[in-house]
Design goal:
- The structure is a single chain.
- The protein is an alpha/beta fold and 112 residues long.
- The strands form 2 sheets. A 3-stranded parallel sheet has the order 1-2-5. The chain has a two-stranded antiparallel ribbon with strand order 3-4.
- Strand 3 and strand 4 form a beta hairpin.
- Helix 1 runs parallel beside helix 3.
- 10% of the residues are buried.
- The mean pLDDT is 86.
């Protein structure tokens, strides 16, 4: 499964777990490094459901809130993969995708 896994709920964990009970499931997460660590200054826009959302990266309160949100999401995602029994690897947007496949491939060249 290839996804950015930006939205993780209890349903996500349940469905992945059900799939993994009867199949060998691996997850490749696509991650832009800017999603985890924002620039320290400047105004930036991100895509939102109703158009661009602008933020000021030099705002310390915004930076702190962003880091807390990222930490919570990373914890939830890790818990989701552990609970559902899914092996996961992350590919950064500037990284060669084959690197993640090598992480997931076993010695015999098989996933799982």
């Amino acid at each position: 499964m290839i996804s950015d896994f930006m939205t993780v709920t209890d349903t996500t964990t349940s469905l992945l777990g059900a799939l993994a009970r009867h199949n060998s499931v691996s997850a490749i997460r696509i991650l832009d490094p800017l999603e985890n660590e924002l620039p320290t200054s400047g105004r930036f826009a991100v895509a939102g459901p109703d158009g661009p959302i602008w933020f000021d990266a030099s705002n310390p309160a915004f930076q702190r809130a962003w880091r807390e949100k990222v930490a919570t999401h990373e914890q939830q995602l890790g818990d989701c993969f552990r609970t559902s029994g899914v092996q996961a690897a992350t590919v950064l947007t500037q990284q060669e995708p084959a690197a993640a496949l090598r992480i997931l491939l076993g010695p015999g060249g098989r996933i799982g």
